[in-house]
Amino acid sequence: MPAPTITAKSYVLTYVALLALVLITVLVGFLNLGWGSMFVAVTIATIKATLVAAVFMHALVEKKLVWIVIAGALIWFLILMTLTLGDYITRGWVLAGK
Amino acid sequence: MFSPPASMLREHYSTPEQQRETVTVGMWIFLATEVMLFGGLFTAFAVYRMYYTRGFDQGSAEMSILLGSINTAVLLTSSLTMALAIYSAAAGRLLRTYGLLLLTAVIGIAFLAIKFTEYYQHYQQHKVPGVWFESSSPDAGALQLFYVFYFAMTGLHAVHMSIGIALVVFYAFRTAAGRFSSEYYTPLEALGLYWHFVDIVWIFLFAIFYISGLHT
Question: What is the pTM of this model?
Answer without folding.
Answer: 0.94
